[in-house]
Amino acid sequence: MANALATAQQLFSVLRNLDAQGARLIRVENLPAGTEWDGVRDRPGRAAAS
Fold this sequence. Notes:
Layout: H1 2-20, H2 38-49
Helix pairs in contact: 1-2
């Protein structure tokens, strides 16, 4: 769980920075399977939909 949490924090920080810079395209690699990664995998999709 610690790796998922640390990855989530880092990913969200990078996504916020890229958004602030006006990035038009952001690619995210597939994240590991497992329930502890569900929220991390869900977030990029939600961000893309908004």
